[in-house]
Specification:
This protein is of the alpha/beta class. The chain has 21 helices and 18 strands. The termini are far apart.
């Protein structure tokens, strides 16, 4: 007879149900694992056989065949150890009780039968919940928030004997990880490190960033060195709404797959401009999430964006449009989510002082144009807001500045309006254009106004759509049901503010 036990396999962040089939029959002593296992799965043979010895299970002169179905999916990692061992014990009649297929077993085994955590456990548990699994046995991991896995019966185990005893009804297992060894469930700080109330001046920039946070719009800031670009970007996450449980699970799963620690509630990634395209996009021989995936549901800040390689910046085009990145390698193809807000910062010219009132620009028009051409036209088209910043005086009063808490409330209200309008958690910058135009159509006068300005500015169709998205967000911040003409004018101003003035200065230089 063949015994079937369920487990979870991973393909990137996506999980799928794996049926572990075990048949033991008389024959030459051996243990064969089939179903496209990699080296780490094949090594399960020795770990499982050693763990079975704890039950005096004798597989001498027996042939053990393990099939991991579906057979066309490549299996990797030691997460199937526990499922293989439980199926073998059931086949050897050491387990009398029934094992439903909606019960999954996840975890690696040591030689003495201890169940150990392995890479990818959280995404596997999240996938189990989405696949309709009712109960899961897995080892304790302090970084797994079991309380957030609602609808999934979690059984934390330390040894394979505990699993067998619980299946037989001889022992009860605690549900919460805190009961395993007294360790608390991890909590991530949600307190912002910086506050917009402490940022002097830059009122127009704060308004633009509030709009960006409300609609998840991308921003490019240009200004001389020391004018506050990095400070504004670092303060920006403080006005973003808190993540939902599902979003938190996605973010934590990505960080576990990447082997990194999540230090804050809202992801904020700030890679150096010398980072390779693989580090930014993701990849490697075994594809792992890159910076854009680690910024999922958060912010990706590219300081000195013009210093990044042109190849790397152009590779951002598809992820910015679709919100996911597909990494293809010879042995596997994985897809990771990467829905983030891009904040770019750059100088207006190579020396940084074009248009400055306190320094003289030493760059020629050709040098300025070459510097700006490092960002290709398609990349510019995917940026919603272009901001031109200037240095501000430190003598300005800061008492009347709006705090991040106040701005965050405005952003949350605008997000709520969008969620109600689209009947799902999606923002104006990410919603399909068909849905946007269906729910918020422009009047003939507004369309004519936008078309006339777009013709003068040589805006592409993509830019015109982004103007409409921006106007919709501005109207949401104002509490208006329809897009107003004032919102369209403000959106067009945000789009063209950055470079027109500086380009005219460059021509005169």
């Amino acid at each position: 007879m063949t015994v079937k036990v369920s487990s979870i396999g991973l393909k990137g962040l996506e999980g799928y149900c794996v049926q572990v089939e075990v048949r033991i029959s008389p024959g030459t002593e051996s243990m064969v694992i089939v179903g496209l296992p990699d080296a780490s799965v094949k090594e399960s043979r020795e770990r499982v056989i050693a763990a079975l010895s704890r039950f005096d299970a004798d597989v001498t002169d027996q042939k053990v065949v393990v099939n991991l179905s579906p057979s066309e999916q490549k299996k990797n990692g030691p997460l199937f150890d526990l499922a293989i061992a439980i199926a073998a014990l059931k086949e050897l009649n050491f387990i009398k009780g029934d094992i439903p297929l909606d019960t999954a077993f996840i975890g690696a085994l040591s030689l003495d039968g201890t169940v150990m955590k392995a890479e990818g456990m959280l995404p596997a548990l999240t996938a189990a919940k989405n696949l309709g699994i009712k109960k899961v046995y897995f080892p304790y991991d302090p970084m797994i928030p079991i309380q957030m896995l609602q609808g999934l019966e979690c059984r934390v185990v330390q040894h394979i004997e505990e699993v067998v005893q619980h299946i037989e009804g001889q022992e009860s297992l605690e549900l919460l990880p805190a009961a395993v060894n007294g360790a608390p469930v991890p909590q991530f700080p949600d307190r912002p490190l910086k506050d917009f109330a402490h940022v002097i001046g830059h009122e127009k920039a704060k308004r633009a960033l509030t709009i960006a946070g409300a609609g998840e719009h991308n921003v490019l800031m240009s200004g001389p060195p020391g004018c506050g670009k990095s400070l504004l970007a670092e303060t920006f996450p403080s006005i973003l709404p808190s993540l939902t449980n599902q979003s938190q699970l996605e973010v934590m799963s990505l960080y576990q797959l990447a082997g990194e620690k999540l230090a804050r509630h809202t992801p904020y990634r700030h890679p150096h401009h010398s980072a390779s395209s693989v580090a930014i996009i993701g990849g490697g021989s075994t594809p792992r999430p890159g910076e854009i995936s680690l910024a999922h549901h958060g912010v990706l800040f590219l300081d000195e964006i013009a210093e990044f390689s042109k190849k790397t910046l152009d590779m951002l085009r598809q992820p910015l449009e679709t919100g996911e990145v597909t990494i293809s390698r010879a042995h596997s193809t994985v897809t990771y989510p990467c829905s983030f807000i891009l904040i770019g910062a750059m100088n207006p010219c190579p020396c940084g002082y074009l248009g400055s009132s306190s320094h003289y620009c030493t760059c020629s028009p050709k040098q300025i144009q070459t510097y700006r051409n490092r960002l290709s036209g398609p990349v510019y088209d995917r940026i919603d807001i272009l901001l031109s910043l200037q240095s501000v005086s430190l003598n300005q009063p800061i008492n009347q500045n709006e705090s991040s808490i106040e701005l965050k409330k405005q952003v949350e209200k605008a997000r709520d309006r969008q969620y109600m309008r689209y009947q799902q958690e999606i923002t104006n910058a990410k919603v399909p254009v068909e849905t946007l135009m269906e729910t918020s159509p422009l009047t003939s006068n507004q369309q004519s106004m936008l078309t006339n300005v777009a013709a003068k500015q040589n805006w592409s169709n993509r830019v015109q759509i982004k103007i409409i998205r921006l106007a919709r967000t501005i109207s949401d911040l104002s509490g208006e049901e329809e897009i107003s003409e004032q919102a369209i004018w403000e959106a067009m101003t945000l789009r063209r503010r950055s470079y027109q003035k500086q380009q005219s200065i460059a021509r005169e230089t």
